[in-house]
Automatic annotation (TrEMBL):
Keywords for this protein: Amino-acid biosynthesis, Cytoplasm, Isomerase, Lysine biosynthesis
Active-site annotation: C74 (proton donor), C74, C218 (proton acceptor)
Organism in which the protein naturally occurs: Methylomonas methanica (strain DSM 25384 / MC09)
Leading EC class: isomerase
Gene that specifies this protein: dapF
Name this polypeptide is given: Diaminopimelate epimerase
PANTHER family hit by this protein: DIAMINOPIMELATE EPIMERASE, DIAMINOPIMELATE EPIMERASE, CHLOROPLASTIC
Length: 275
C-alpha cells in the first residue's frame, strides 16, 4: 500500500507521495495506473517528494505526467509540494529550496495562504526545437490544415508553445493542441498555451498540456505565456493570468531575469492505493 495526498493548484490536480518515509519505486505504467480517473486515483500529474540531491536544498521533488512520462517542471505542482512538506511537518521553513530535474526552485509562503515560486530564467529557444532554431527568434510559424499557426516557443524548464488568440473560449485547443503537442519539431513534445490578451496587466489562458491534455490550470504555462506577451510588447511586468481553474500572478522583469509565480495550493484528502 502507498500513502498519498490528493492536492490541486487551481484545479490542476496531483497525487503527492512522500518517498522519504516510504520506499517508492514506480514504473511509468504504475504512474499511468495511479493517474487513471477510472481505474486508479486520478490526477494530471504525480509528484514524488525525495531527499535533496544538493547540500543547499531541503528536498528534491520529481514530476510525472498522467501518461507516465517524467518531466522537469510543474508550477502548480511546486506550490502543492511546498504545502505538502509543511503540512506533513517535513519542514517548518517559510522558504524552501527544492532540487528538480530542471534545477533548483525557491518556494516562499506569503500572506493569504499563497505560495510564491521563483520559476527560474526562461530560455527562449529551448533545445527541444532544433529544427526551428533561429537567431533567438521567439516567434515561429507552421502550416496547419491549409493555414498557418504562429507561436512563441520557450522553456520554463519544460517546453512551451504559446499561441495568441482573440478568445480562449473558442480557441482550437481540441485540434491544434494535440497536433502541436506531438509535432516532430518538438523532439520532446510540447505544452501548448492559448493566450487572450485582455489588457497589459491581464490575460486569459487555456493550456493543452504535454502528457495530460487540457488541464484547469498550468503554472509553467502561465509563466511562458506572460514571457511571450512581454517579449512581444503586449504586457507589463506584473500580469494576472485567468485560467479556467482560477488566477495566478506572474511577474517577470525581462530577459535574464527569473519569473515569479504566486498562487494557492490545496490538500483535498489523504488516501492509500494498492499497487
Ligand atoms: N505537462 C507539463 C508538466 C506539468 C506542468 C503543469 N501542470 C504546471 O503547472 O506547470 C510538461 O509535460 O512539461
Amino acid at each position: 500500500m502507498i500513502n498519498f495526498t490528493k492536492m490541486h493548484g487551481l484545479g490542476n490536480d496531483f497525487v503527492v507521495i512522500d518517498a522519504i518515509g516510504q520506499d517508492i519505486n514506480l514504473t511509468a505504467e504504475q504512474v499511468h495506473f495511479i493517474a487513471d480517473r477510472h481505474f486508479g486515483v486520478g490526477c494530471d500529474q504525480l509528484l514524488l517528494v525525495e531527499r535533496p540531491v544538493r547540500e543547499n536544498a531541503d528536498f528534491k521533488y520529481r514530476i510525472f505526467n498522467a501518461d507516465g512520462g517524467e518531466v522537469a517542471q510543474c508550477g502548480n505542482g511546486a506550490r502543492c509540494f511546498a504545502r505538502f512538506v509543511r503540512e506533513k511537518k517535513l519542514t517548518a521553513k517559510d522558504e524552501v529550496t527544492v532540487d528538480t530535474n530542471a534545477g533548483q526552485l525557491l518556494l516562499r509562503f506569503i500572506d493569504g495562504g499563497l505560495i510564491t515560486v521563483n520559476m527560474g530564467v526562461p530560455k527562449h529557444a529551448p533545445e527541444q526545437i532544433p529544427l526551428l532554431m533561429k537567431d533567438e527568434a521567439v516567434q515561429y510559424s507552421l502550416e496547419y490544415d491549409g493555414g498557418i499557426v504562429s507561436f512563441s516557443a520557450l522553456s520554463m524548464g519544460n517546453p512551451h508553445a504559446v499561441i495568441q488568440v482573440e478568445d480562449v473560449v473558442s480557441a482550437p485547443l481540441e485540434t491544434v493542441g494535440p497536433w502541436l503537442e506531438k509535432h516532430p519539431v518538438f523532439s520532446e513534445r510540447v505544452n501548448v498555451g492559448f493566450m487572450q490578451v485582455v489588457n497589459r496587466q491581464r490575460i486569459k489562458l487555456r493550456v493543452y498540456e504535454r502528457g495530460a491534455a487540457e488541464t484547469l490550470a498550468c503554472g509553467s504555462g502561465a509563466c511562458a505565456a506572460v514571457v511571450a506577451g512581454i517579449e512581444q510588447g503586449l504586457l507589463d511586468s506584473n500580469v494576472s493570468v485567468g485560467l479556467p481553474g482560477g488566477d495566478l500572478l506572474i511577474e517577470w522583469a525581462g530577459r535574464g531575469q527569473p519569473v515569479f509565480m504566486s498562487g494557492p495550493a490545496v490538500s483535498v484528502y489523504e488516501g492509500q492505493i494498492r499497487i
